[in-house]
Amino acid sequence: MIAPNMDRLALYLHIPFCSSKCGYCDFNSYEGLDHLVPEYTPAILSEIELWGAAATKHEIHTIFFGGGTPSLTDINDIEAIIAAVKKNYLLTDDVEWSLEANPTELTLKHLQDLRKAGINRLSMGVQSLQTDELKLLDRDHTPERVFEAFADARSAGFKNINLDLMFGLPDQKLETWQDTVEKILSMEPEHLSCYALTVEPGTALYYQIQKGFIKEPDPDIAADQYEWTQEKLEKHGYNHYEISNWAKPDKECLHNLVYWRAQPYLGMGAGAHSFFAGQRFANVDAPNRYIDAITATKLQRMNEGKSTMQQVAAGETPDKNMILADAMILGLRLLKGINEINFEMEYGIKPSEIYAESIEKHINLGLLIRDGNWIKLTPNGLLLSNEVFIDLLPDENETLVNIQEQLLA
After folding, report:
1. N or C: which end of the chain has fewer CB within 10 A?
2. 342 and 201, same domain (yes or no)
């Protein structure tokens, strides 16, 4: 039984292992570390328990398994993690349990086991239904496998499925993107995440573009693809509720809405980020160091009755200016935008009082618009959102836009 007036909290559980590393990926994921899996699951189980005491005044309404490739995890480990969450936290009756997956390993039996374990939302990394584009992105599935995996997920009882797609690829024509989207729509997923490719420094794709082996993406074609997608998905009954996300009615991703509304979340696992009790912090990235740190934290707690969270590598207490900027940037990602009255109730001040110059500047540039008590991005602002976001940041924190993009990708 949930006590009244409890604060809500989201949990993020990071599974960093992959069968192969995609050329565009700069997430905290690793291939060739399968030997660490037997130690990693007990470590994340321990971290779930370690944080439990700090979250007794919160109710959990969304849990997200991200990666890496969580669907590679043995079903017994998934079941153990779910059991640990249920044991150590208060959960609402309608928890959203999301799990990221690749089409390749999604057999009908595994999907049935995931659904039986309690996973009720599946997020499948498709990216493209063009063979040459999948090869460019180092994806190891075929277009045919996507349809098979989706059909198996439906047979297993999944009624809430997201498909990730990627546009703005090198040499990707508008027509090939349209072909992918139209084929995806034939499957009728509940949710679609359509991201423009970001070529991140340090990735294999970045190296290939820098050396001239692959052309740079064309931003004008990407803009055409994005605008076509908006129109197409609206006609098919999808609500465009965030810059890169569309959903059927009542099928928005509750977990990501926590981020966009600047609400608290706890991240567990190697490299996981958190915003909890007014603090931002992140765990150590390397899975072996994460395992060692959790072991040391548990040992300290056993010997001394208390412990420091030694897996936490870095953190900060954001000041008021940073909290306000964070709320503005994340809130403007939503198509509804920022409600000035609600913002003032939450933070004690209206956006127009602290960001008057920036807001008016971008209204004049056609990137923002006022709609009653709402401030939101215009259609052109959706394409150039970073130009708005950077102007909202305190001068010393201009890297936050990139951090938020990595978190929400």
Report:
1. N
2. no
Integer CA distances (angstroms), 372 to 333, 338, 341, 354, in order = 18, 11, 10, 18
Structure tokens that stand for 291 in this block: 């395992």
Helix (H, G, I), strand (E, B) or coil at 155: helix
Query: What's residue 255's pLDDT?
Result: 98
Task: Give per-residue pLDDT as tens, 367-406.
Answer: 999 999 999 999 999 999 999 999 998 865 444 444 344 4
**Both tokens assigned to 377:** 């991005």
CB atoms within 10 A of CB 315: 13
Classify residue 76: in a domain, yes or no: yes
Range 71-82 average pLDDT: 94
* Residue 389 falls inside a structural domain: yes
Asked if residue 94 lies in contact with residue 55, where contact means CB atoms within 8 angstroms, the answer is no
25 Cβ contact list (under 8 Å, min separation 6): 203
Give the tokens for residue 220: 């004008």
Q: 372 and 243 share a domain?
A: no
One domain for residues 61 and 151: yes
- 255 shares a domain with 325: no
Is 119:63 a contact under the CB 8 Å cutoff? Answer: no
Return the pLDDT at 202.
81
Domain count for the chain, please give it. 2
Domain interval for residue 51: 7-260
C-alpha 262/C-alpha 373 separation (Å) is 19
Of 211, 242, 260, the last residue of a domain is 260
φ/ψ of residue 389, rounded to 5:
-60, -45
Asked whether residue 313 is assigned to any structural domain, the reply reads: no
Average pLDDT, rounded, for the chain: 91
Q: What is the CATH number of the domain that holds 388?
A: 1.10.10.920
> Is 301 within 8 Å of 370 (Cβ atoms)?
no
DSSP symbol at 70: G
In DSSP terms, 167 is beta-bridged to 196
Give the residue from 14, 26, 12 showing the smallest Cα distance to 67.
Answer: 14
d(CA 380, CA 384): 6
290-339 pLDDT tens trace: 999 999 999 998 888 777 899 999 899 999 999 999 999 999 999 999 99
Nearest CA-CA partner of 85 in 62, 116, 115, 111: 62
DSSP state of 97: E
Name the pTM for this structure: 0.91
Q: Nearest 5°: CA angle at 230, between 362 and 179?
A: 140
